[in-house]
């Protein structure tokens, strides 16, 4: 995960990743969008490739770069843990969900009777 976070810490690399969403581009095509040299773009692509965020593929005489979002999975999970409520916040969220579900069921006349019957048989 450290390689991924280091790679996406640079704004140029983040822009390159955004460009590669859903498409494959050569280094030259990527370089045209930035006011920096093509060798500098190649260095950024090397960092992205080494971190697993980008894969390259030789197609004829062209080397195409593609985004590989799988490398972001561990980082996304870590962020999800940080964003999740802790302790009472989590329990209150569950209570709020249950209250909303109950209100929704009571608003539908047949649903409450069906739920009561299924709870009685359980």
Give a verbal description of the structure.
Pfam families: HTH_5. This is Transcriptional regulator. One of its GO terms (molecular function) is DNA-binding transcription factor activity. Keywords: DNA-binding, Transcription, Transcription regulation. With 122 residues, this protein is mostly helical. It has one domain (1-106): Orthogonal Bundle (Arc Repressor Mutant, subunit A), CATH 1.10.10. The protein has helices spanning 2-8, 11-19, 27-31, 38-50, 73-83, 88-107, 109-121; strands spanning 24-25, 54-59, 62-67. The protein has a three-stranded antiparallel β-sheet with strand order 1-3-2. Helix 1 (2-8) runs antiparallel to helix 4 (38-50).
In short:
With 122 residues, the protein is mainly α. It contains 7 helices and 3 strands, in the order H-H-E-H-H-E-E-H-H-H. The model has no long low-confidence stretch (mean pLDDT 88).
Work out the helicity level: 55-70%
What is the string of SSEs from the N terminus onward? HHEHHEEHHH
* Main beta-sheet annotation: 3 strands, antiparallel
What's the architecture in CATH terms? Answer: Orthogonal Bundle
Give the termini separation: 46 Å
> What portion of the residues fall into strands of 2 or more residues?
5-15%
Which fold does the CATH topology refer to? Arc Repressor Mutant, subunit A
Structural class: mainly alpha
**Total domain count:** 1
Determine the number of helices (DSSP H or I, runs of at least 4 residues): 7
Number of E-type strands:
3
| Mean pLDDT level | 88
CATH class: Mainly Alpha
Shape verdict: elongated
Which spans have pLDDT < 50 for at least 5 consecutive residues?
none
The CATH homologous superfamily is named Winged helix-like DNA-binding domain superfamily/Winged helix DNA-binding domain
Strand order of the largest sheet: 1-3-2
């Amino acid at each position: 995960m450290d390689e991924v976070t280091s790679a996406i810490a640079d704004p140029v690399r983040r822009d390159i990743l955004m460009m590669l969403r859903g498409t494959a581009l050569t280094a030259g095509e990527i370089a045209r969008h930035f006011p920096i040299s093509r060798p500098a773009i190649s260095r950024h692509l090397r960092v992205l490739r080494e971190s697993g965020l980008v894969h390259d593929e030789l197609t004829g005489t062209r080397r195409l770069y593609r985004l590989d979002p799988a490398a972001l999975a561990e980082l996304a999970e870590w962020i999800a843990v940080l964003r999740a409520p802790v302790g009472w916040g989590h329990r209150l969220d569950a209570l709020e969900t249950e209250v909303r579900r109950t209100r929704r069921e009571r608003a539908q006349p047949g649903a409450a009777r069906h739920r009561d019957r299924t709870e009685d048989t359980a």
